[in-house]
């Protein structure tokens, strides 16, 4: 984290409205880039598969397709699999419902951290609250400090006034956070 290129001293401003797609993409990044997310990506499908297998084995051993325990385990395995895939979009939709009520957001990123606000909402985060960031073609995703931190920041590139601001924002993030 080198300090102080002259171009990174100027704050970078973004003006945008969040979308459920922004949050879905950010949650996918978090699941790939954090230890807790990677564990969930492995454990939930494994648990679903094991539960389903126990149910199938029980039904085959019982010799009757109506064994209650086997049917419950099969259904639970399917439910766990569905929940694994449905949870990120549902969570993203809930986040959008919350942040959508704030309308247009304005975020300023500078050497003190990040400030986001609208008419009814204001939040400031110093760099110490964040530890890493990832970049997608549409977003910068800020991951909060802490091994199992669930919070994240979403900065849509469409909110930048000038495409060159993406380079300035990336330089600021590189100066203060680890890119993952």
Describe this structure in words.
By secondary structure, this protein is an alpha+beta fold. The protein has helices at residues 20-33, 35-62, 68-100, 165-176; strands at residues 12-16, 105-110, 113-117, 122-126, 130-135, 139-144, 152-156, 178-179. The chain has a 4-stranded antiparallel beta sheet with strand order 1-2-3-4, with helices on one face. A 4-stranded mixed beta sheet has the order 7-6-5-8, sandwiched between helices. Helix 1 (20-33) packs across helix 2 and helix 1 (20-33) crosses helix 3. It starts with 11 loop residues before the first strand and ends with a strand.
Distance between the termini: 13 Å
Shape: elongated
Query: What about the largest sheet?
Result: 4 strands, antiparallel
Gyration radius, in Å: 21 Å
Structural class: alpha+beta
Share in helix: 40-55%
Order of helices and strands: EHHHEEEEEEHE
Please give the number of β-strands.
8
- Classified in CATH, the superfamily of the domain at 1-17 and 103-180 is Pleckstrin-homology domain (PH domain)/Phosphotyrosine-binding domain (PTB)
Q: pLDDT below 50 for ≥5 consecutive residues: which ranges? A: 1-7
**Strand neighbour order, sheet with most strands:** 1-2-3-4
Mean pLDDT: 88
Protein name: YcxB family protein
Organism: Streptomyces amakusaensis
Transmembrane segments: 42-59, 71-87
Keywords: Membrane, Transmembrane, Transmembrane helix
